């Protein structure tokens, strides 16, 4: 009986040894120990690293443009509003031009362009002068609008292509994971996990770069539209100023004829 019991234990031990382990049973020592974002970056393929670095640079560029354009819009918008309110007072075109001096802000250039056209016209205030002044003001407004919008195109580009760049990194990382499975002849999670994690990190970075870029771009577009409206108000005030001077001139001529 004892020999039979011993033989049974031996057979049972051999049978358990030959039974295949479950597919989900893995050796903990084979799993990557550092799955932090930095650790995943260091362990990523060179192509995925390039994608991540590019997305990080794009995100940095987004916030740099936001800071620079916000400061510029606030400074130029405040100055444009101040000069536009000054034009609402009772003054002549020559007085407005003298007040601006050698300033190079948008409204100052509008005033100087208007005064330059009046000077070239020999001081003759007629319908032709108003048309020429309107044309000059339109050109200056367009130039100032292009200047203030410079740099915002970068945000539109980042917002449009960053998700696709992140998706490319995702596809590349998953492809490497399948290659690792094929080479190791196993479906162990220790082989698949690093590539999947790197792929998801590339996707996350793409969204981190794209979402703020789109939001900031829309915010800056609204700010630029408000700035253009201020320039339009300044141009309207200058046209009114020229019209008033013309009417006063006609009024003085009529009184002199009496």
DSSP helix fraction: over 70%
Stretches with pLDDT under 50, minimum 5 residues: 14-32, 250-258
The tally of beta strands, per DSSP, is 0
Strand content: under 5%
**Principal-axis shape:** rod-shaped
Backbone structural class: mainly alpha
From the N-terminal CA to the C-terminal CA, the straight-line distance is 147 Å
**Rg, Å, rounded:** 36 Å
Q: Report on the biggest sheet.
A: none
**Could you give the order of the helices and strands?**
HHHHHHHH
Total of helices:
8
Oligomeric state, counting identical vs distinct chains: single chain
Chain-averaged pLDDT: 78
Structure overview:
- The protein is an all-alpha fold and 258 residues long.
- The chain contains eight helices and no strands.
- Helix 2 packs across helix 8 (189-257) and helix 5 packs parallel to helix 8 (189-257).
- The termini are far apart.
- The model is unreliable at 14-32 and 250-258 (pLDDT under 50).
- InterPro entries: ExbB/TolQ_transport, MotA_ExbB_proton_chnl, TonB_ExbB_1.
Topology, please?
Blueprint: H1 2-18, H2 37-43, H3 46-87, H4 93-100, H5 106-120, H6 127-148, H7 152-184, H8 189-257
Question: Which key features would you list for this structure?
Answer:
disordered C terminus, 0% strand, 258 residues, mainly alpha, 8 helices
How is this structure best summarized?
The chain has about 260 residues and is mainly alpha-helical.
